Every structure is written in structure tokens, then in C-alpha cells.
Automatic annotation (TrEMBL):
It holds the Pfam family Peptidase_M20. This is Zn-dependent hydrolase. The lineage of its organism: Archaea, Methanobacteriati, Methanobacteriota, Stenosarchaea group, Halobacteria. SUPFAM superfamilies: Bacterial exopeptidase dimerisation domain (SSF55031), Zn-dependent exopeptidases (SSF53187). The keyword Hydrolase applies. It comes from Haloplanus rubicundus. InterPro entries: Amidase_Cbmase, Bact_exopeptidase_dim_dom, Peptidase_M20, Peptidase_M20_dimer. NCBIfam families: hydantase (TIGR01879), PRK09290.1-3 (NF006769), PRK09290.1-5 (NF006771). Residues 209-311 form the Peptidase M20 dimerisation domain. GO terms for molecular function: hydrolase activity, acting on carbon-nitrogen (but not peptide) bonds, in linear amidines. The keyword Glycosyltransferase does not apply. Keywords: Hydrolase.
């Protein structure tokens, strides 16, 4: 039997949170552990309090609000996302997942529904990673992917330590930052942040996994020299070698996999002067695909292109592999709970793999995990122009609520 969330209240709750750190451009500037983030956390705590939920804050600031189940010893179902935002980001990214989880519990209360399992609503610390690296930090600490002491020492652009900010805003909690007990499942609703759902005319995304990624930093070392007096045959130009690789990376996905994407997103040139042959160029490569062997082939091809470009131009090179995240396949049980909810509600759902990392990346190593995606208009994300219509917020939040209830087990 379905539950119906209150559409008007969902919109009101979205607007309430959007006012905290809201920008003139209609977006959100709520960097993790800032004053605005503290205010959003207080708001989350108030919501939990009003619902009579028990709130725990762990040593990394992750917040868990609990609604008991008929069987308090049953493994809980965890639902949520993050309330921090990118600098001048949108009001939906992260917040929609937290608000939908709150509305799910409010609906249970409204309808007097008891669940077999406890339900916990979570607000993860620092999903965005734009103030303190890395992204998905709070869930990563909780899942054991990062050492908490090392993450405490991370500093922002002003040299402020993360742990000091956590203490300053009063959200360094008493609980160890780790799963307190085994969890039955984790469900997260998030905007797609890409154009796939809109392009295919779908209402909602049934996320079956998250792509893996490989990051590297490449350095070419040539010879600086006068741009007027150095004949072309004498040049060891690091930027020319880098340019060959940039275009090779752009062409790489076409010959690898249908879903491969590859990017050179950052590049620095030294000495970076109009009349000097470039001596040192450093740039990053980012290759993503759902398939691990495709990723490995992508990295091999990137390495071969770098070596060939260095050889052609007569420059030295170095490749440092800076990050490797394995792709995640969500298990059938929670994915089918999402798919069943989509069917029950009569929506057009599309199965898809997430091209971005999420807190679900880390929870997947702790418990059965799945995600619901809402439509992102024009695929825009990490900008004030990010937009998901209220209709799409409602349909995706309804799917989340019904899938979560399915996993939590309704007591009749
Ligand atoms: Zn997000």
C-alpha cells in the first residue's frame, strides 16, 4: 500500500532550507561548517525534535535522527543526503535528499504508520569537498574509508583547520564516527546533475550504481628559451606535448566505451610568458566509466599518449596517479524497492548509472545501498541555475518514501 507525501509541505520545507545561506541569484552559498551550515544543522535538529526523533551527532558532525521501529533491535534503514552546498550552488543538490527523508518520516507520523525497522534520517558532513578536501568526507569517515584524525587536520583556503570549525559551530559530537550497528539499507534521493532523464523524457531515475574514476597528474618538463631567437628545431616545448595529450584525452571516450567520459580540467604553464617557450606544464586527467576494465584500458591509453607526446617533442614526463575510486554496483534488493515504487506510483523510471560520486558511494561498503534521481533541468548542477521542478521534486520524493517504507517494513 502506497503512502502519499504532502506536496505543499515538501515545497515549503524545501523553501525553508533554501532560505538558510540563500543568495540573491536564487541559489545557495552554504559551505560546510560555515555559519550558514551551522544554521541549517540547527534547522535539521529542530525538524527532528518536532518529530520526536532521537538525534545523535558523531565526532565528525554527521547527524542521525532516529524513529524507532516495532523491533528496536532490527537493523535500521538509513535515508538522507547532505545540507552543505557548493560556493554559489543550487538549492536542490543534497538538500532535496534530506528534505525528502524528513517528509518521509512526517508522512509516517501523519498516517500513524509503524515500521518494523527503525528509520534514521542522516545529514552527512561535507559532501561537496569545495571548502575542505575531499568530497563525500563525512560519509567516508563514517564508512572507514578515511582516518578521522587525518581529516580533522584538513585546512580551507584561509588555513582554518576542519576540526576547529567543527568545534566552533558546536557540531563535534560524542558518538564515534562509525556505524553504531549494522544497517539494513541506505537510500538517497539526489538530483541527477546531468541531462539523461530530461533527454529521455523520464520522470525519475532508478540508480543501479556509480561510475568508477581514475585521476592523474601529468607533468611535462621541457626547456625554457627565447621565443624569438630559438629556431623551431631547437625547441623542447612542454605545452606542445601537453596539447597533444589534451586532444587525445578528448578523443579517448569515443574508442573506449559508450559511457566513458574523460577530461583535462586543470592546467598550469611555467613560466607562462608571451615570449618564452614553455618549460613546465602540469595538468590533470579524469577518466570515468562504470566498467573497471574499461577504466584500466583508459589509463593505459592515457599513459601511452603521454609517452608518445614526450617522445615527439623531446621533453621529460612524469605521471602521478592521484585517485582511484572503484565503480559501485548497487545490490538488487534496494534497487528493486526503488523500481517497484516507481511502478506502483505509475511513473516512467529509467535505470541509470550515476556519473558523479555521492555519499552512497561510501555507504555501499557498509550496507545495501541504492539511489533515486530527480530530473535536473538542462543537466545543470553546481550553479545557482540548478533547477528541479516542484513536480519532479514531488515524484522523486514519493518514490524515495515508498521505497524506504518497503525496506523498513510496514507493520499492519
Ligand atoms: Zn550533492
Amino acid at each position: 500500500m502506497r503512502i502519499d507525501i504532502d506536496r505543499d509541505r515538501l515545497v515549503e520545507t524545501m523553501e525553508e532550507q533554501a532560505a538558510i545561506g540563500g543568495t540573491d541569484g536564487g541559489g545557495l552559498h552554504r559551505l560546510t561548517l560555515s555559519d550558514a551550515d551551522a544554521e541549517a544543522r540547527d534547522w535539521f535538529a529542530d525538524c527532528a525534535d518536532e518529530m520526536g526523533m532521537d538525534l545523535r551527532v558523531d565526532a565528525f558532525g554527521n547527524m542521525f535522527a532516529r524513529r524507532e521501529g516495532a523491533d528496536p533491535d532490527a537493523e535500521p534503514v538509513l535515508v538522507g543526503s547532505h545540507l552543505d552546498s557548493q560556493p554559489y550552488g543550487g538549492i536542490f543538490d543534497g538538500a532535496l535528499g534530506v528534505v525528502a527523508a524528513i517528509e518521509f518520516v512526517r508522512t509516517l507520523d501523519d498516517d500513524g504508520i509503524e515500521t518494523e525497522r527503525p528509520v534514521e534520517v542522516v545529514n552527512w558532513t561535507n559532501e561537496e569537498g569545495s571548502r575542505f578536501p575531499p568530497a563525500m568526507q563525512g560519509s567516508g569517515v563514517w564508512a572507514g574509508a578515511h582516518d578521522i584524525e587525518a581529516e580533522y587536520e584538513k585546512t580551507d583556503a584561509d588555513g582554518v583547520r576542519l576540526v576547529d570549525e567543527l568545534e566552533r559551530i558546536g557540531y563535534r559530537g560524542d558518538e564515534p564516527a562509525e556505524p553504531r550497528e549494522p544497517y539494513h539499507a541506505y537510500l538517497e534521493l539526489h538530483p541527477e546533475q546531468g541531462p539523461f532523464l530530461e533527454e529521455t523524457g523520464a520522470d525519475v531515475g532508478i540508480v543501479t550504481g556509480i561510475v568508477g574514476l581514475r585521476w592523474a597528474e601529468v607533468t611535462f618538463e621541457g626547456q625554457a628559451n627565447h621565443s624569438g631567437t630559438t629556431p623551431m628545431r631547437y625547441r623542447d616545448d612542454a605545452l606542445v606535448a601537453a596539447s597533444d595529450v589534451v586532444t587525445a584525452i578528448r578523443r579517448l571516450p569515443g574508442s573506449l566505451g559508450e559511457r566513458t567520459v574523460a577530461t583535462v580540467g586543470s592546467l598550469t604553464v611555467e613560466p607562462n610568458s608571451v615570449n618564452i617557450v614553455p618549460e613546465t606544464v602540469q595538468f590533470t586527467t579524469d577518466i570515468r566509466d562504470p566498467d573497471e576494465s574499461t577504466l584500466d584500458r583508459g589509463v593505459e591509453r592515457m599513459e601511452a599518449e603521454v609517452a608518445a607526446a614526450a617522445e615527439r617533442e623531446g621533453v621529460d614526463y612524469d605521471i602521478e596517479h592521484t585517485m582511484r575510486a572503484a565503480s559501485v554496483d548497487f545490490p538488487d534488493r534496494p534497487v528493486e524497492a526503488v523500481a517497484d515504487a516507481v511502478d506502483d506510483l505509475g511513473y516512467d523510471g529509467r535505470r541509470m548509472v550515476s556519473g558523479a560520486g555521492h555519499d552512497a558511494t561510501h555507504t555501499a561498503s557498509v550496507c545495501d545501498t541504492a539511489m533515486v534521481f530527480s530530473v535536473s533541468e538542462d543537466g545543470k548542477s553546481h550553479t545557482e541555475d540548478e533547477f528541479t521542478s516542484w513536480a519532479d521534486c514531488y515524484s522523486s520524493a514519493s518514490v524515495l518514501a515508498n521505497a524506504a517504507l518497503d525496506l523498513a517494513g510496514r507493520v499492519d
